[in-house]
Design goal:
- The chain is an alpha/beta fold and 408 residues long.
- It folds into two domains: 175 residues, Rossmann fold (3-Layer(aba) Sandwich), CATH 3.40.50.12020; 213 residues, Uncharacterised protein family UPF0261, NC domain (Rossmann fold, 3-Layer(aba) Sandwich).
- Helices cover 40% and strands 16% of the residues.
- The chain has 14 helices and 14 strands.
- The strands form three sheets. Strands 7-6-8-9-13-14 form a six-stranded parallel β-sheet, sandwiched between helices. It has a five-stranded parallel β-sheet with strand order 2-1-3-4-5, with helices on both faces. Strands 10-12-11 form a three-stranded antiparallel β-sheet, with no helix packed on it.
- Helix 1 links the parallel strand 1 and strand 2.
- Helix 1 packs across helix 7, helix 2 crosses helix 4 and helix 12 runs parallel beside helix 13.
- The radius of gyration is 24 Å and the shape is elongated.
Length: 408
């Protein structure tokens, strides 16, 4: 296989010896290592310059290395260096000059390097070698919604001990192997229609039935857990050109963004397919529930109808006023769509935990959402109601039928 080029991101003012060792090990494996220095201080005398020195990164971020080193505003200069590094990394990737990226650092270095990694498309090899990869709260910040692998060194990255050398040797092997895997191509890479499908446990049977029917018809179906991270990443991947259509069974993140629930997937959720002109089928799994953090419960939440999914997750029924607000948010997003849209809504509950007998089952309030949505959508967007629960086979059939109307 052709030798890959790997972008190595580190700070030569604090980790020169360790970084240069890792660069040497990567190149000993037949890959090219392009070293980018994010130092905000001055490296020791005698440290060889990086391929992309800190001064170049600072310029790309709209400053100078002199201003960076003279400033006491750490948050500000860190942001400048991240901006510059992102710009340069994206330029390298767009020019086909790198096939992977590896970072080396502690807390600050890991936060900076992974910000740069997340600016690169899905499928580009990304490995963060960090002494703080396992710290609670930091690992999720490092990964975000990126396809980043974390390598926890356990020991501090300080001095070339035998243990650290062995860890860096393994990291070099890992990034070289990862970078040799070709990045994914765009739509229909395998000659089949590529469909993004959101799903959750309470609509698992529907998602499985839809997937099997579409795969039988020759499509490839890529699933995303709609819990706030993967479905947000799906939006980015749609914009990357990896899909031909979207079936959004579980767009609850739209409403969660309004009240900052645990499944919030950001303000741009349910917009990428429309912006790209892709066909999309929308269903309402979990849209009639919210999942606020229990530490942030309002007093009135305790009196609402709710469903405990497990000891960690509770779904709270949203109010009629909130139903209307979500319906209007859906309409605002879908009305901007440049491609065809079908909305399919069940009349007998919107998930497996939303059936007759459940304390939160309320088809009359669900119908309020449907009414507001229909009245708010532009002409040409079809809303179909199905006399079934979302997990019933009849509903999956209706979703597939709606998809086939738009995609041949």
């Amino acid at each position: 296989m052709p030798s890959p080029a790997v972008l190595l991101i580190s700070t030569l003012d604090t980790k020169a010896q360790e970084t240069l060792y890792l660069k040497d090990r990567i190149e000993s494996l037949g890959a090219r290592a392009i070293l980018m220095d994010l130092s905000m201080g001055s490296p020791d005398a005698g440290v060889p310059p990086a391929d992309i020195p800190a001064a170049e990164v600072a310029r790309a971020g709209g400053s100078t290395i002199e201003e960076i080193r003279a400033s006491r505003e750490r948050a500000k200069i860190t942001a400048v260096m991240i901006d510059g590094a992102r710009f340069l990394a994206k330029d390298l990737h767009a020019g086909g000059k790198i096939q992977g990226v590896i970072g080396l650092g502690g807390s600050t270095g890991s936060l900076m390097a992974t910000e740069v990694m997340r600016a690169l498309p899905f499928g580009v090899a990304k490995l963060m070698v960090s002494s703080t990869a396992a710290l609670p709260g930091l690992s999720t910040r490092y990964i975000g919604k990126g396809d980043i692998a974390l390598f926890h060194t356990v020991i501090e990255i300080a001095g070339l001990s035998a243990l650290l050398k062995q860890a860096l040797d393994r990291a070099a092997q890992a990034i070289c192997a990862m970078a040799r895997v070709p990045a994914p191509e765009g739509r229909r890479a395998e000659g089949r229609t590529a469909v993004a499908l959101t799903m959750l446990g309470p609509c698992e049977h529907c998602a499985s039935a839809v997937r099997k029917q579409l795969e039988k018809a020759g499509c490839q179906v890529i699933g995303f857990s709609a819990a706030g991270i993967s479905d947000a990443a799906m939006e980015d991947m749609v914009r990357q050109g990896l899909f031909d259509a979207v079936i959004d069974l579980a767009p609850g993140g739209v409403g969660e963004a309004l009240w900052k629930g645990m499944r919030s997937s950001g303000p741009r959720r349910m917009e990428a397919a429309g912006d790209m002109g892709l066909p999309q089928v929308i269903a309402p799994c979990s849209v009639n529930f919210m999942t606020p953090r229990k530490s942030q419960y309002k007093p009135e939440y305790h009196a609402r109808r709710k469903v405990d999914l497990d000891r960690h997750r509770t779904w709270i029924r949203i109010s009629p006023e909130e139903m209307e607000a979500v319906a209007r948010a859906f309409a605002e997003k879908l009305n901007r769509a440049k491609g065809p849209v079908r909305v399919v809504i069940p009349r007998k509950g919107w998930s497996a935990v939303d059936r007759e007998g459940s304390p939160a089952y309320d088809p009359e309030e669900d119908a309020l959402f449907t009414k507001v949505l229909k009245n708010s959508l532009k002409e040409g967007i079809i809303v179909r109601e199905v006399d079934a629960n979302l997990e019933d086979p009849a509903f999956a059939e209706a979703v597939v039928a709606a998809f086939r109307e738009m995609v041949t």
